[in-house]
Fold this protein.
Amino acid sequence: MLISNAYANAAGAPQGGGTMELIFMLVIFGLIFYFMIFRPQSKRVKEHKNLMSALSKGDEVLTSGGILGKIAKISDDSDYVLLSINETSQITIKKDYIAAVLPKGSIQSL
């Protein structure tokens, strides 16, 4: 009466054909992953590795824990550094925990 009968559409479902769009989307996500995550992280790792290889005795450094000190002893075969905090105290830390090399005289200026 007021509502007409609904009949199924005789045409089939649209064909797949979305393979190219899927591949294109995966390539876009791969590029986003590379430029936003992988590339900056690899740059930071490379810079930190260069920093670790350039360390020498007498450098004033800042550790990732916030400790300022001067390198008293460093050896190439060991991953550890003897850090002099003041004239009487020294600590041994792992090289990986050195965050930055400070300019000469930074500790005395504080």
Remarks:
- The CA atoms of residues 74 and 81 lie 5 Å apart.
- The longest strand covers residues 68-74.
- The chain has a mean pLDDT of 87.
- The two ends are 91 Å apart (CA to CA).
